[in-house]
Amino acid sequence: MASEVSEITINYEEDGVLLVQELDKEILSKGAWATIIFRFRQWDKKKEAYGPEQYTIRRYRKISGQYVPQSKFNISSPDQAGKIVQVLGRWLQAVDAD
Questions:
Q1: pTM for this predicted structure
Q2: Measured between alpha carbons, how far is 60 from 63 in angstroms, rounded to an integer?
Q3: Residue by residue, what is the 3-state secondary structure of 15-32?
Q4: Alpha carbon distance 5, 64 (integer Å)
Q5: Which class would CATH give 5-97?
Q6: pLDDT tens digit string along 65-94?
Q7: Buried b (16+ CB within 10 A) or exposed e, 16-53
Q8: Where do the structural domains in the chain lie, given as residue ranges?
């Protein structure tokens, strides 16, 4: 658990092997609720190598001074990530036009 939003990570190690390797993160919002988007890759035991980059958006809630995971959305592919960017871009242009 982390007491500061900047301390939150999705790095995950088991038996000395880093199974989830965080490559980058951006804090989208912080406070009692924090939203973070992570870029990461997972260890593939069969190939003994890391797989392709993946992305996840996670929400955390601060309870008793510690950030606790509340929800997550995994972006399943670079194609899906691109579609999300396109749709949000289109929606934001419409908002700017108002």
A1: 0.89
A2: 9
A3: CCEEEEEEEEEEEEECCC
A4: 14
A5: alpha beta
A6: 999 999 999 998 999 999 999 999 999 998
A7: eeeebbbeebeeeebeeebbbebbbbebeeeeeebeee
A8: 5-97
